[in-house]
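Ticket #4471: structure export looks truncated?
Reporter: QA, pipeline team
Priority: medium

Steps to reproduce: submit the single chain below to the structure queue and open the exported record.
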Amino acid sequence: LFIVIALLSACSLQPQPATTFSSWQQHQQQIAQLQDWKLLGKLGFRTSQQGGSANLNWIQEKENYQLSLSGPFGVGSAKIYGDSKTAEMLYKDTIYRQPPQQLAMQLTGLPLPVDALSWWARGIPSPTQPAATGLATGSGGLAAGFDQAGWQLSFSRYRQTDGGLLPGKIIGSLNAGEDRSYSFKLVISGWKFLEEE
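Actual output as written to the record:
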C-alpha cells in the first residue's frame, strides 16, 4: 500500500513543473521572433542619489532602435538612435555620441545593459547577456521574474497582443554594494507590431 501511494504521489507531482517549463520554452521562442515593434509607456528610474521619470515612445527594428523620452528629470525631452554598439542622443539641443550603456548612464544614472532591454521589455532573457538564473514562471509558463546581468527583474500585467502575451509592467533592481542601488520601472500602455517590408 505504501508503494502504491508513493507511486501515485510521484505521478501527480511530476507533470506540472514539466508542463510549465515546456510552456515557458514555447512562449520564449514565440516572443523572441518579434523583432519589429513599437511600444508606448512610462519609464521611472532611481539611483541612490537621484530619480526621475519619462514618457517613452520606443521603436525597435531588428537591432536598431529609436527612443523618444519626454520629461526626463521633469524637464525637456531626449531622442536616442542606435544599435547594440553605437548610439546618438539629442538632449537639450546637444548631440552626444557614445556607446549605448554610457548614454543610458548619462541620461538616467543607471548602469543598464542597453542591448538587453529590448528582450526584457518582452518578458524574456537576453541572449547577448550571461544566462538568466532564478526563473520563476506563472500561469501558462509566462516569466514572473528572473535574474540577469546582475539585475533582478519581475514581470506582471501580461496582456494579449497581436504578437502574443506580453508584460505590461517590468521592474528591475540592482544592488551594487557600498550603498549603491539602482532600479527602474517600465509601465507599457500599448504595443504595435511593424509590418515587414
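Status: closed, not a bug. The export was complete when the record was re-opened. Leaving a note from the reviewer for reference: Confidence is low (pLDDT under 50) at residues 1-17.
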